Amino acid sequence: MQKMISLQKEETKLNLDKMKVFKILCIICATGLTMLTFSCSEKIKNIDHEIMVKVPESKLYVRVRGNPENPLIVNLHGGPGGYSGIDIKLMGPGLEDKFMVAYLDQRGCGKSLECNDKDLLTVQQYVQDLDIVIDSLRKKYDKEKVHIMGTSWGGMYGFLYLLADQTKVYSYACIDGKVNSNYQNHSLIDFETDRANEILQTNISVERKVELEHIVTELKRIKNSDFAQFHTDVNWMKHEVPAKLGFNAYFADTSKIISFKDVVQDTALMRLMKYSEEEYAEVGEKAEIVNTAFRNTHSYNNINIESDLKQIKTPTIVIQGEQDYVVGKGHAELIYNALTNLSKDKKELHIIPNVGHCPAIESPQLLSEILVDFFQKESLNN
Asked: Which residue of 41, 218, 303, 366 is 20 to 30 Å from 23, comparing CA positions?
């Protein structure tokens, strides 16, 4: 009997202990739920900062957007003479939730101060500017290093910076960039010459024949020049000749071209970029100053860093639209093959089909996926 009573007491005690444990678990779960709810409500919000960085004799505009706790990507726009505002729409949606992106307006471009001094519109000055910007961003946002992505001229700009200093960069994405001006210039000249000669073999009017013969003659003159005063010629080659030969140097799908009028009439885009119509008109004027200065410089028009790419040790991804006639079809393969100091697991090559020089416009989703995969991989490796 006493034994039974003892067992009943132990069972009662055990049940009470179980109830205590259950209550404790309930408290833990409730507290955990509260903590989880609190954690979600305290999720780091994306930032949107506008910064003016002091550089020699100027100030450069940088728009910083995204998650400040995530890796920092510095974006280099094209040109020379472009601007970064539209990249916020084209590149931002796929990147800003996973990274912090710094959209730099280069010297004399976009919202940066105007620059009329040609002596300051040089490759050497731009490389120095970028170094100052990167140091400023690293300090402000407490980042040991940054990632860089550059498009078109920005693609070469990024490589020029890496050749000067790779110690501050985790990885680099070159999008429709160039490294060999001779390859770029002659690729377009040869393609247009061949296309004009093909049309000349067909049954065409006298007027059309005269027009095409003039194009062939001019292309020959340009090819035999030293490209010293190249601004007028290169714009003719890229913007006027293609229309007469039935192709577009920049776009595989011309329905996706974004004009000045398209941008100005897109009020949401203008608000996103923080431009008034008058301010946006000034962007074009500034671009002409910068582009003319670079394009009428012999050293820039003949720059060739292909053989120097063997010095690159920074993980690199090379991306190009399949129908890119601006830098020349095959330029991405040329760059990839020149990165001889990078093993296959440290470099990537992506050719995007049915796309021209502007994959951010023609194939934004695919470009975003490629960039996110690459930068996330390289962030995990560091």
From this structure: 41
